[in-house]
């Protein structure tokens, strides 16, 4: 199985350890991983700000870099959803369509494609799980409380395989952290209040770490935690799953 690794901008620039953990995890689970060196932004920031027409260059570059792979995997639900729903290339429409259908968020790929049932890893800490909106509501990585359907969570399914972990969830399990891409810039006060509410509920569970599948959300929560002088840390789910393999 040949897999292309897509690393979003903010991971590349601020949290490279998440990209490294994702690469190592996929390789240890038997994947042949390639990293296209000319990859750049997927175009989501421009599209979210109302300038989708300016992201065509990102689309063309994405198609050039990720054509020909069986699967494309990224440790970011929001970027994956953007590619799935918006990637276009007028010169190569079939290639763009194939990419839209073959890109996966990391936990989705591990559960649905690799069908991982056991992971030889250990993380003996109290961890709070944060559900990011794009992954939960766009990619169906976990159930939503407003829908009367059986509960499920692909990230939680994987974390339950980790030895020593004490996993907890906030009271309002699927509420937004307030990041929302450019929302946290244009609506700073609302964004921060939403993040503080999330952290307050995690603090009630006396956790050591907050984890999730989107580094952008974790980055937002991390900033608030640091300003509060909290000892709670954030960690991407890839880092936990790769911690002691």
Automatic annotation (TrEMBL):
It holds the Pfam family CCG. One of its GO terms (molecular function) is oxidoreductase activity. Residues 3-83, 127-221 form the Cysteine-rich domain. GO terms for cellular component: cytosol. InterPro entries: Cys_rich_dom. This is (Fe-S)-binding protein. It comes from Flavobacterium rhamnosiphilum. The lineage of its organism: Bacteria, Pseudomonadati, Bacteroidota, Flavobacteriia, Flavobacteriales.
């Amino acid at each position: 199985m040949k897999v292309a690794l897509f690393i979003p901008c903010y991971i590349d620039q601020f949290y490279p350890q998440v990209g490294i953990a994702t690469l190592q995890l996929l390789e240890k689970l038997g994947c042949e991983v390639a990293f296209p060196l000319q990859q750049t932004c997927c175009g989501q920031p421009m599209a979210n700000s109302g300038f989708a027409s300016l992201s065509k260059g990102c689309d063309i570059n994405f198609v050039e870099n990720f054509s020909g792979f069986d699967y494309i995997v990224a440790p970011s639900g929001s970027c994956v959803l953007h590619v799935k729903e918006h990637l276009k290339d007028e010169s190569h429409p079939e290639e763009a369509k194939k990419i839209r259908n073959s890109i996966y968020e990391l936990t989705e790929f591990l559960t649905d494609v690799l069908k991982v049932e056991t992971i030889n890893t250990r993380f003996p800490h109290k961890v709070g799980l944060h559900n990011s909106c794009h992954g939960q509501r766009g990619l169906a990585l976990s159930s939503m409380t407003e829908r009367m359907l059986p509960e499920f969570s692909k990230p939680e399914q994987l974390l339950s395989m980790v030895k020593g972990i004490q996993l907890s969830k906030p009271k309002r399990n699927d509420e937004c952290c307030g990041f929302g891409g450019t929302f946290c810039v244009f609506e700073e006060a609302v964004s921060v209040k939403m993040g503080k509410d999330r952290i307050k509920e995690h603090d009630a569970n006396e956790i050591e770490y907050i984890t999730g599948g989107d580094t952008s959300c974790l980055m937002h929560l991390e900033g608030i935690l640091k300003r509060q002088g909290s000892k709670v840390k954030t960690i991407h789910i890839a880092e936990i799953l790769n911690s002691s393999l």
